[in-house]
Design goal:
- With 124 residues, the chain is α/β, with parallel strands linked by helices.
- The chain is globular and about 30 Å long.
- Strand 3, helix 3 and strand 4 form a beta-alpha-beta unit.
- The termini are close together.
- It contains 5 helices and 5 strands, in the order βαβαβαβαβα.
Amino acid sequence: MKRILIVDDSFYMRTMLKNMLSDAGYEIVGEAPNGQTALELAKTTSPDLITLDVILPDNTGLDVLKGIKSEQPDMKVVIVSAVGQEVIVNEALEYGALSYIVKPFSEEKVLEVVNQILGSPSEE
């Protein structure tokens, strides 16, 4: 089963993503409300994919993305954020994010992006 780590400072958003992705058949291996926890969980849970918010209480998602990529260059990261400015989107993609989903999003959009990156949840 494909494993996903969800990083978002909003409990509501984490819960929404967790329900959406686990209903689709993905395993949620952790939830991080901030960048520090995200970096620790990225190491300890070995997810197949990380969904990452840009606005976090302790540092920016872009810094977290750089931190994850410096330790685990092959880690797949998708940004899920309300910040949709082109400059931020481009920066995230430059730093190695595979996709950028702007909130509010549809379940279809999230699952389409995740399925595209990981393949369907049942594929091993």
